[in-house]
Amino acid sequence: MGKMRAVRYHGQRDLRLEEIDEPVCGPGRVKIAPKFVGICGTDLHEYLGGNNLVPRPNHPHPITKETSPLTIGHEFSGIIEEVGEGVQRLKVGDRVCVRPTIYDNECRACQKGLNNCCDKNGFVGLSGWGGGASDHCVVPEASAHKLPPEVSYELGALVEPLSVGWHAVDISPYEPLDTVLVLGGGPIGLAVVQALKAKNASKIIVSEIAPARKEFAKKFGAHFIIDPIKEDVVERVKEINDGAGADVAFDCAGVQIGLDTALKAVRARGTVVNIAVWEKRATLNMNDLVFRERKYIGVATFLASDFESVIDAIATGTYQAKWVDKNKCEHIGY
Fold first, then answer.
1. 181 forms bridges with which residues in the sheet?
2. Rounded distance, CA 237 to CA 69, Å?
3. I need a surface site. Which of 15, 17, 66, 233 has the fewest CB within 10 A?
4. Residues near 291 by beta carbon (within 8 Å), at least 6 away in sequence
5. Which residues, 6+ apart, have CB-to-CB distance to 29 below 8 Å?
6. CA dist 84 to 20, 76, 131, Å?
């Protein structure tokens, strides 16, 4: 068995570039040489706050049976360098991106086709099975999505976060003529804006504080930007929408004040869609829901169909791609 380099998560503020055993490509699996890997907000939360999604020592993930230390990187693209017995859809040399969800394919959710809601769900690069921050990674064939020539490795690494936004819009009650409020202009909020634009949204409103994120939101297709420090978000949304609240709000921030604002900013029978992963327990003012018959729903990551839709949107130019920048880290040593 050969050796390879991997960035390993050992715990809070403890990442190490290590030499570990190269993974073996078993039946039904493909071995990938990662080309580009993204650093997700989830990675930052794990690094700064300690084990959350990454299984703690003595508490292994129910499917992978792994705990930290483990290899990170769940947003990545690469080239297939080996295929296991029984693999039919992919071949050596195929360019792919990885859908990192881990699921048991046995629970009630999986049997209904909702493997993103698996009772034992996890993620390659967070729960085990290696990750993109390594020389080699082995994943199930179903997890690897082929990239067409129009989609670069750089963009391929972004399919994962973009699919989060696509899935959220896809399962929400959004319709093309709706007024939509997006709380938070970070990577996932911008992914929602991109999905809304691809689905011909006529009024996209983004609530964001950071100047750089405001500019990105404009570039990606937001029609209105609200600074919640300087403006009353609820009143401004009504002003934009002829006195009515937003039809749908997407909470990509995961902070209490944002949730409170979203519930008041949507119209009667409007819907608040939660995408954010919360670090703290949230509270709901139930009367804001009850007396206006509003709805509050959660969305979880993505399905295979979302990955394929995003890949197609990038390949056909429906999604903007020119904004992508990259920084190379070369000659990394010990």
1. 205, 249
2. 46
3. 17
4. none
5. 83, 84, 87, 138, 139, 140, 141
6. 21, 20, 18
Q: Are strands 3-11 and 14-21 parallel, antiparallel or unpaired?
A: antiparallel
Task: For residue 256, count other CB atoms closer than 10 A to its CB.
Answer: 13
* Cβ within 8 Å of residue 91, ≥6 positions away: 80, 83
Where residue 26 falls (left for φ over 0; alpha for ψ -120 to 50; beta otherwise) is beta
- Give residue 148's identity as a one-letter amino acid code: P
What would the two tokens of residue 170 be? 């896809």
Q: Which tokens sit at 138?
A: 């082995």
Paired with 84 in beta bridges are none
Which residue's structure tokens are 């976060």? 161
The Cα–Cα gap between 308 and 329 comes to 29
CB 30 within 8 A of CB 90: yes
Cβ atoms within 10 A of the Cβ of 181, count? 30
Gap between the Cα atoms of 218 and 211, Å rounded: 11
Residue written as token pair 């930052």: 44
Residue type, 15: L
Reading the chain (334 residues) residue by residue, the pLDDT tens digits are 799 999 999 999 999 999 999 999 999 999 999 999 999 889 998 999 999 999 999 999 999 999 999 999 999 999 999 999 999 999 999 999 999 999 999 999 999 999 999 999 999 999 999 999 999 999 999 999 999 999 999 999 999 999 999 999 999 999 999 999 999 999 999 999 999 999 999 999 999 999 999 999 999 999 999 999 999 999 999 999 999 999 999 999 999 999 999 999 999 999 999 999 887 899 999 999 999 999 999 999 999 999 999 999 999 998 876 555 554 545 444 3
DSSP 64-127: T---SSEE---EEEEEEEEE-TT--S--TT-EEEE--EE--S-SHHHHTT-GGG-TT-EEBTTT
pLDDT of residue 263: 96
pTM score of the predicted model? 0.92
The two tokens of residue 293 are 């018959």
Would you say how long the chain is, in residues? 334
